[in-house]
Fold these 4 entries.
Entry 1:
Amino acid sequence: MEKRKKWLVVMAAFLLLCSIVAAVIVIQLYLSTEVTLIVPHDIRADITSWGWFGGNLSMGFGDTAVSTQQVTFMSYGAKPLVLSASVDGLSVSPAWLNPHYYSLDWTAEDYEIQPLESLETNFTLTIDVPLVREYMIPRQIMKVDVTFDIIVSADYVLIYHNLTIETTPNGTTDPAPGVYPYRDGIGVTVTGIPDLGYAVDCWNLDGVNYTINPITVTMDADHSVIAYFKEVPTMVFVDPELVNVGVGETFTVAIKVANVENLYGVDVLFGWNASLLEYVSHTAKIPTDSYPDGILYAPGMMIMDAADPTAGTYQVAYACMDPAPSFNGSGIIFEITFNVIDIGSCPLDITASDLSHKVGVPILHEVIDGLFDNTS
């Protein structure tokens, strides 16, 4: 009887031990199935060299380069994880030497890797880890997130596109005509700079015409812009051309000359409706020695600089004298300020306009009047 009792105790202990071992194995199998690899940045590579940790992927266009990196993690006796990434140079588009996104084929010996259809920022690469029972040690198998940083240089992917800038005769651009690489997504402003007597007619951007200047190009692909210039006449005009201001408010207009050559004297008479507009002040922007945005040079003589608020007129006349140089280009002849005293409409009228060369020869030019109208 005593012998039988001992045998039952041994059997019970054996069965208990087997149950514990089985439970441990089941728990270990459940806990040891995967390790997650987190890549925190966009994967990118340079087509000529790719620094990856201590290794280096050197490749020419059309080559396939391979590099490996061992990743350690806490596991239950599993093999070390060795990742291999291959880069196919033929997958690069467009095919020119700048950093680009590359397709990476990941492999790991004796491990199964969840396939990735595309690489995105902060993607997760999941790897199934096999249980290696012969190396069992008394600690729990763990699922571990491993930070895997393969950044080459900067914090963002550098994709570049070419902007081709061209121009027709009689002007240039800023930046100057040429081919420039710009980072993806940025806006590039190109300004047309016409020669004297010319103006920007239009821009041709990828086959479409635009009349604005400057023009801004968003670099989302390769682009081409062409600046077209046209000859423009000399003109005297009111700026702004149309004014709509309420009673009790003030406004200022500028009378300007544009695209003039060899200007040596000016005489302009300006008029308005004094029952609608009350004269406040004026500034003759002559000479440019005192007013950089004005016209003509010293020495010279201010022949007339007078306003008649009652009649609604203002006249300015100035003549240069030797050794003053001739004026070329565009500038403000004068500015004049009004207070609106009633509702109505009237021309801002350049009644007379005389421009002349040094020897008194008249300069032919166009005149463009302005309009005041606060009836709507």
Entry 2:
Amino acid sequence: MSDIVLTTLNAKFIHAAFGLRYLFANLGDLQPRAVIAEFDINLRLLDIAEALLAREPKIIGLGVYIWNVAETAEVITAIKKLRPEIKIILGGPEVSYETEGQKIVELADHVITGEADLKFAEVCQQLLRGESLPNKTILAELPEFSRIALPYDFYTEADLAHRIVYVEASRGCPFTCEFCLSSLDIPVRQVPLDKFLAAMQKLLDRGLKQFKFVDRTFNLNILTSKALLEFFLARYQPGMFFHFEMIPDRLPAELREVIAKFPPGSLQFEVGIQTFNPEVGSLISRRQNYERMADNFNYLRNETSVHIHADLIIGLPGETLESFAAGFDRLIALGPQEIQVGILKRLRGTPIIRHDAEWQMIYNAHPPYEILQNKLLDFATMQRLRRFARYWDLVGNSGNFIAVTPLIWSNNASPFNNFLRFSDWLFAKIHRTDSIALARLMELLFEFLTRELELDPKLVAETFWQDCQRTGRRDAPNFLKEFLPQENWSVIRERDRSLPKRQSRHITA
């Protein structure tokens, strides 16, 4: 039994709740009276309520995010009906802004807005002493990292072995991109480097091999970035993998040199481009040097083994279908291994709302608050683009069609226009964007390439077979066999042994 239960509903089991561990690490004298209990949104909500009540807590602290707000509200409703005396404290980005009128806020006793690392313990102390707090909403002052206990000791051995482990060397972002919550976190604050590296060493000593950095601007402070990279490079062991988010137009020589030393499959950079349209960038207060970015991409692709995950956003104010298409084609030409096509979300607290009237921005009222249409992209077009993004994820990003995907625009057409053509064709065929078996998707893609684009079936079949072998398949699918020499149906040919393997674990959650 625990007086304090720290909990959240993760999007998937594999995600370990970083914020809960920070709160637990900073409970001080209350730590023996507290426990972390994690769930995921795929579990039955009444079962979650039952598990929380079984702890007989006096206080439940809940992390609320865009992906779990509706489910969390249901859990709180059940708990309050059964045990109304339990104090419910909310925190997290979804309840840190625009709290008035939120159903989940009305259900709770208190809401801590901002970074609650230290404030949560203070509020718990007061409540456990029987004190009543004058305000429902409690603003957490921005904590100094020198006062914050780091959370890494509270990843369990099971976490290290089976889940994504998040780390951060800094918080905040120097940029003011209007769609992003990180733009509200100013100034950027660094964890004391010696303290952070000591914590990383402990994780390495415990056997952790995959690190996902959540810093929004990993390469902002070059000295710190270089120190981190050199630290991990010096301790590299086969199987290690490091994910960083980086500014695309900032990659000086001193970083390039150390990045180039990492072996294949060990580094992934998430690069937020979002738009190639300078006018759109200006509207959303995003500054980028596109020439420098292209040079950095060329260096990373040609001189290093870094896996590049690049982001573009559909639906930004001022972005037309044509300008997004041009940006997508431009990004394809730069050659990142993965392109995440995202739909603009209207996150609470972000200043993107200042464009609502001029650009007629209409968003879904329910999480994840994606845009439905705007002045330049009507609802029907936005739906086409939503399907484009989903199918691109299944084909372009899955790693199953590395050789096949470029065939979609092999007739020298625009990659965007041809993939949109495939997307429209596929949806007309199957009328769905989920629960598509890989074997079925392969057959449909083969049909599109050979019948709609009229590519040589033998060439397409050989390209499919290359991808099959790359992903470990030893026998050719039946629909390919009539186009492949029989001796190649289940034999890996010597000329294909040199094909590149899938490079990374794609930690993108």
Entry 3:
Amino acid sequence: MWFYSDKVKELFKNPKNVGEIKDADAVGEVGNIVCGDALRLTLKIDKKTEKILDAKFQTFGCASAIASSSALTEMIKGMTIEEASKITNKDIAEYLGGLPNEKMHCSVMGMEALEAAIANYRGGILKRETAGDEKIICKCFSVTDKKIIRTIKENKLKTVDDVTNYTKAGGGCGRCKPEIEKLLKEFWEKEATKFVWAKEEAKKKLTNLERISLVQQTLEREIRPQLKMDGGDIQLVDVEDKKVYVKFLGACLGCLSTGVTLKAFVEAKLREFVEEDIVVEEVKG
């Protein structure tokens, strides 16, 4: 059974900004009713300041889709187009106090509707990063490789189930799952190659800013995902030359084995990917 935050329940039962702006300055439409989810976003924009004066939505979907759409409209009212363009599906999910993994595709749909509306306002065609020619991977839900690759990148997805939760691809007949697995493998192999190259380049001569950047990358890529699998987490507090200060969170907080984790795992990973003589210390409290 899925857990919904109070905010999701509130915006599902009493959604805000439902409807359509008749003289809209921007319109964004995503999804397909046949596939189960669809969203139409309309915006009223001040032409001089490019500030979003009003936002309304019409959606066909589940409670999470309605709540995500309502949350999006609340978030962007009062923002400029430039500010709104930086909103991600993670921002929408966080505004709602979180969404079940199986419903994250609803926040992605909201982000895509906003992007489509901004592109419509600017009179251009929405362009997104892709790899190779775009093609439909999931025929059940008309999900392309372009969307899958982008979602993998932005949300650091690692499994086919993750991709299904965020895009719905693979959630129908399941025949596309091998292709999704292939996209995952190819993407992360390329990322690993880029990361190793950056690591080797950085090792040649690290400034403190470069060291901080590499430490952050290693925490995000190599350390946090492993800790989060067991309900834990870690936060970078400070970097002073070759001494790194971190704070454990979640299930790691107060755990009797954090000392071992700190040296045998965290410090070992940072020495592998940053510098061989780096030292890690835990900040408590």
Entry 4:
Amino acid sequence: MRRILAGLIVISLLSLNCDRNHVYSQTKAATQEALQIVLPNKKESVHFAVFGDMGTGELPQKQLADLMWQTRQVFPFDAVLMTGDNLYGSESPRDYERKFSQPYQQLLAAGVKFYASLGNHDNSNQRFFKDFNMKGKEYYTFKKGNVRFFALNSNYMDQPQLSWLEEELKKSGSEWKICFFHHPPYSSGKQHGSDKELRKVVEPLFLKYGVSVVFTGHEHFYERIKPQQGISYFVTGAGGKLRPGDVRPSNFTEKAFDQDQHFMLIEVIEDQLHFQVIARTGKTIDSGIITRQEIKGP
């Protein structure tokens, strides 16, 4: 009896895998038809992608990774900002391989750089993983073209980090200043909502030194916040995880989507930032243009 049951289980699992592969093939074909890039896609502009909460190692993450690779054939981004929760669960070398290196192997092989920030599910030792490009630091900055990026650790927004951020913002001569981290200062999620304490300490610095755009994760959906005192905030936390039906639109919600995984494409051309948000089906769920505002610093 045990042998018969074991055989039935194996047959069932094989059937389930075949069904999944069939659905995946159909979805991939449909995705290719649905995918349309609406960005200017100029050669000399700054191209990058953004997503977060991806590190599950499960099929939806892999499907989204495949879509990112397909998208790059048309829109050649060379960097990806990660808004945290890069690996869920254990973090052995095998986990890094299964939950990151394998899903994004084509992008990595093509020279795309992933820039990580730490989420509440992440071990701080991730900062030493070469392909997260953190260079041993829990918060750091780097530049591409006319954009200066600031990766923050919102798990511990202590005074040393705030002092570092102020000094780096102050001396940055870049036209665009973009911050990315895990916990959202503004969110309409039922699970978490806005991190108001974090907002109290970081937003004054953003305003003082002219931060234009902020990308966060933590909530497993997409949300574009109405500009807050001239700053554009995005929640993009469904690169692998998903929490359907979690958005409760608020008075600061401009656009929200919680029905599928997604990633963002960004293109910066002089004083304009173009964005496009693409679901796992290849469908565009949001797009638009942000014009950089001149914010006078001290």
